[in-house]
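User: Hey, my collaborator sent me this sequence without any context and asked if I could get a structure. I don't really work with proteins. Can you help?
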Amino acid sequence: MGYINPTLAGSSYLTGETFTVADAYLFTVLGWSGRLKFDLTPWPALPAYLERIAARKAVQTALQTEREAKAAARAAVSGA
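Assistant: No problem. I've predicted the 3D structure and written it out in structure-token form, which is a compact way to encode the shape of the chain:
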């Protein structure tokens, strides 16, 4: 976190101003922090980064697709 926070404090994405696959992966890993009850507030650039990535249209579409797939799988298992 000590490396990533200052990097993200100085740029929009991990490698500068261009979104890369590394950003998609970091978004996923940092997203686990909520479920793990891991507080990111000591690194203020990280919650801001999560918000910035989550606001991307493609990310919103992917997350919605994931929610729909999970709901369909639960329905299939429950026989609904």
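In plain terms: The chain has a mean pLDDT of 94. You can pass these tokens on to your collaborator as they are.
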